[in-house]
Amino acid sequence: MKNNLVFVAGLHGNEPVPVMALCAKNIPFVLGNPLAAKLGVRYVDHDLNASFGVKNNTYESHQSKNVLKNIPQHSIVIDFHTMPVDSPSFAIVVDEDMIDYAQTLGVRHVVYMKYNPKNGHALINHRKGVSVETGMHGLYASYLKTLEIVKRTTYCRKTRGVQVYEVYGAISKKANYTNFALFSDDEESFYPVLAGERTYDFLGLKARIYKGEIQ
Fold first, then answer.
1. Mean per-residue pLDDT, 130-140
2. Is the pTM of this model over 0.85?
């Protein structure tokens, strides 16, 4: 898998830490949104990681095509991100076949997006792979986690104690949520994911323990 692995960073221009980590170690990667990175903004017209396969005249729609041109069709993508909220690092997959691989990357939580809030327009909907939230924006810990994940791709051994979840809906009710800590009230119980992430039109995502077969 190493030979056809492609690292991607900077799909969001306000997430420079993974870009800095990869550049510092001269690790080849695809820079997702150069203009947004230059301007220090998340995006220019629209979220690039919700623009793949979208046909319109936005900067990100055009840039999504450039990104895909730089990633061979049969590659495996590791797409690095950071978050504005306090949360453990975690991996995101949209393809159940990638769950097993995601467990080798050194994160304790793997999230299968059975419910897809980006409607199939994220990068990993168009190239097989894993998105990794390495930690909060601007933290050195996020820098180190990026490099740790790169290193782990060289030997692909499963991390012990990884919990796999499946997202099944969006959080609609305001409450005090802690990401990956079980939340329960009189109506339901779920594990919050991306709770407090204000860049989306939801309060967070609802996840349950994944019950599918994992090879």
1. 97
2. yes
